[in-house]
């Protein structure tokens, strides 16, 4: 993957620091993280769902946390009690992970559920009334003023 140098943009712009940081973080995340696999889908106009494949993890071994505009999903496998398990081959990865997602303004987590080894995190964009576009009524001008035509 190409690596873009954003330094010239820092020199010629003001107030776009957050955007450039997001681009840098996204580029670094794409190069390093591949586990666990996930999907992001739009389920309605203002609703989204992140689905993560977390086979082998129980609900109590996963943590979904929202702080400011960042969603963090963490998985920490608890050690099995005793040595009763005797694997000949272990292909299901159960290593610890931490996956971060940057959320846009006004996007909130509405819930999380687990089904068949898939963790579903539901998100919704809720724009406050003050930020929504509004239509301004145009008042009709009063009757045109009569011009006295005294001759």
Indicate the topology:
Blueprint lengths: L6 H6 L4 H16 L5 E7 L2 E7 L8 E6 L2 E6 L21 E6 L4 E9 L2 E8 L26
Antiparallel strand pairs: 1-2, 2-7, 3-4, 4-5, 6-7
Shape: elongated
Number of helices: 2
What's the architecture of the largest domain in CATH terms?
Answer: Sandwich
Low-confidence sequence ranges? none
CATH class of the largest domain: Mainly Beta
Radius of gyration (CA) equals: 26 Å
Q: What is the name of the CATH topology of the largest domain?
A: Immunoglobulin-like
Order of helices and strands: HHEEEEEEE
**Alpha carbon gap, first and last residue:** 84 Å
Strand content: 25-35%
Fraction of helical residues: 10-25%
Strand adjacency order, main sheet: 1-2-7-6
Mean pLDDT: 81
Can you count the beta strands?
7
Oligomer: single chain
The description of the largest β-sheet is: 4 strands, antiparallel
Describe the structure in your own words.
There is one protein chain. The chain has 151 residues and is α+β, with helices and mostly antiparallel strands. The chain folds into 2 domains: 1-32; 36-80 and 90-131, Sandwich (Immunoglobulin-like), CATH 2.60.40.790. It is 15% helix and 32% strand. The longest helix has 16 residues, at 17-32. The chain starts with 6 loop residues before the first helix and ends in a 26-residue tail after the last strand.
